[in-house]
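Repro:
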Amino acid sequence: MPINLSYAEQATGIVLGADGSRELNAKVPYSESARDMPEAIERVKKYLLSVPGSEAWISDQEHSYRVTVPAWGRFEAWLTRYSASGDTGSISIGMDLGAVISEVGLPSQVGQGLGHRGLGAIFRYSPGSVDFHFLKDGTLFLVHDDDLDNPRTILE
């Protein structure tokens, strides 16, 4: 089942084409498809980095999640806070993948979750080796640090 991606200007909500164009013709499609989450995240990453001040929607037939890109360095700040105090801040089990990206940024790598089709995926963030695991409906169910010297479950 394909994953649908659509884009809009964050300030106005005007829907944009995949190339960033502002065509207001309702007959023009303003979405694109990806075959899996790794491809979907790469397309969203390319779009959000090339059209600043915009947002994306990642959806399947049942779920739709808004994605914005936070200021650079948010994951590093989150990891530093967690390492110093154990505080996971606003990251919690049950969040959707759009909220996680909007909070800590775009992942460095994306893997398709084992046996998880649809929006299921594993987002790996760097620096470090922290993985955010999502169910097929796009909800967070596990955050794990795969550090070879000190592997640990952060949230489950």
